[in-house]
Amino acid sequence: MSSREIAELTEKQHKNVKRDIEKMLVDLEEDTLSFEHIYLDSINRQQTEYLLERDHTECLLIGLCAIHRMRVIKRWHELEELASQFFIPQTYPEALRIAAQRAEETQHPNSLAS
């Protein structure tokens, strides 16, 4: 989740969310640059945001009020649901099984999946 999205969901200024993230990462002794991402703002200037995975997002949330925590938690659930729709096989045999299953479903569209 991006620091901009967290700022929007928590109704905070992005610069303040970034400050909180930077402090959190320093406290955790983690490399801030590994979370940094450049985006273009509305007038085409390069700006910095942070991209956090779930663990770091949850750590950041601890300091927020319950309403803001819940908004971010619900958004994480939405993101996870979207991600689950785009399953990527991790092994060649797994990819073959999925391809075979889809071929079978195409040949027999009315049969029930097992």
Helical segment tally? 5
Shape: elongated
| Overall average pLDDT | 86
Strand content: 5-15%
- N-to-C SSE string, H for helix and E for strand: HHEEHHH
Q: Helices and strands: which structural class?
A: mainly alpha
Which features does this protein show?
mainly alpha, elongated, 2 strands, 114 residues, two-stranded antiparallel sheet, 5 helices
Overview of the molecule:
By secondary structure, the protein is mainly α. It has one domain. It has helices at residues 3-10, 14-27, 54-61, 66-84, 92-107, and strands spanning 36-40, 46-50. The longest helix has 19 residues, at 66-84.
Briefly summarize what is shown.
The protein has 114 residues and is mainly α. The protein contains 5 helices and 2 strands, in the order ααββααα. The chain has a two-stranded antiparallel ribbon.
